[in-house]
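Newbie here. two chains, one complex. Structure please?
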Amino acid sequence: METLNDAAPKLRLRGVRKEFVLPRTGERTVALEEIDLDVKRGEFLCIVGPSGCGKTTILNMIAGLTAPTGGSLEIDGKPIDGPGAERGVVFQDYALFPWKTVWENIEFGPRYRKGSALAKSQRDERVRHFIDLVALNGAENKYPYELSGGMRQRCAFARALANDPDVLLMDEPFAALDAQTRVILQEELLRIWGETGARDERRTVVFITHGIDEAVFLANRIVVMGSHPGRIREIKTVDLPRPRKPEMRASAAFQELVEHIWQLIRDEAYAATVKA
Amino acid sequence: MKADAFDGRRMPERPRHGLAGYRSRRLWDAATGVGVYLRTMVVFLLVWQAAALWIGNPILLPTPVDVAESFVELAGTGEMITNIVVSVTRLVASFLLAAVIAVPLGFAMGLNRTVFEMIDPTVELLRPISGIAWIPLGLFILGIGDALPTAIMFYGAFFPLLINTITAVRSVDRSYLNAARTLGVGRATVLLQVIIPAALPGILVGARLAAGAGWMSMVAAELIGAPSGLGFAVEWYRELLMTPKVLAFVVLIGLMGYLFDRVLRAVQRSLTRWAEPRNA
């Protein structure tokens, strides 16, 4: 197990609450209550939990797309009060711009971002680098509708990375993919994240998923959430060595951890499924 | 309806085998289209011919053959071309004027609640009033000439463009806006690079409806308020009781409207190449 630097968390959430008001009745629902969470620099943090536990809401608040009802969110000690280029997001539905090609989508952040846009030559080099990294060579001039699900996913990933964010927020990025593609992309993700390289060069990742085995395979730590209201039930540290290998999935330690997390959320998962 | 339209296994046709294959596929599609069109027209013309023979009075209803002869005759004299040029010029002028005003106004109304609430009641009040209802007032103010038909056509084209622009701007998928914002871009970029392209397909639908509405108002306005144009020609030959020529111009109005829509569809396709081709 690699030690993570506890001194200065990259993200700090304190007493974060989120309530929604139903427009018709004025009734208040507590979506999240009292979330305390530190995300360490260079950490790969996964959040798992049953449907409706507020995973996506946490991510949107870190991204600055949703404001909390109460509590504070900080990045590098500064409060989060809106979206910013230092927090890149890979959305569940990818949200690629359909009117832009693969190249133009990946180029979007470096080209248009406020204050720190890159010159053309630098930009081209950068886009080329990330297209190579996610193996989209040959698809540069295709529009999103011409891509397969896996290619769209990789394009969305490259678009977020090309903007050089400190923190990468990923909302169930592999949910819409078939099982084989998902397994391949999980390994790709770890490679691109820099699993084999130096720890200082890794980005901080917050990764939301339904898949417990996916979380165990990827994460340094796993936040297990409960619902009604959304809250953190337990934070598990994953003691598997890096780089993670596919064969680890069959190991006893891996299976034990999956089973443990499943026991934590199964009752609520069943309740959510049967009620729905 | 074509039988194969019900065949669910038919795949969307897309160019896959280079430019040559693409061209021949398009030619084939065009030929098939013309075939279907002719088949439909033959039925229509037969019914027309039968009705004309049954009525037996060429002033009430001439046969298609008579109309075709008049059509060729008018095309030969240049009278047709002159009137087409006049009417199309009016359509283009009124359409461009409507676009220049309605599209920016639609953006302002779609993006800003206050602007919308200030202007929308007026729009909803005027929209159900047909352009034709304004012709008498227009005759007082503008008199007979180019101005009246252009103004009425502008009125007809304005609302489809405005309403479609507002709807298109409002229904831009939030996820695109969120994606742009998390990439750290400013408001101007969001407008230029996200909202405008995302709204473009809806605006182009509005443009096609607007051109159609403008063209329809044209005939009414020219029947009454203009000394030239296709609508005027219809009225002119009606007074002379030359029904075949009346119908020849009516046919021409239909053909021109159809051609316009084809042109706008081609523009639509070329501007939104990125959109997923539908199984049309």
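Moderator note: Residues 153 and 217 of chain B are 5 Å apart (CA to CA). The two ends of chain B are 13 Å apart (CA to CA). Thread marked as resolved.
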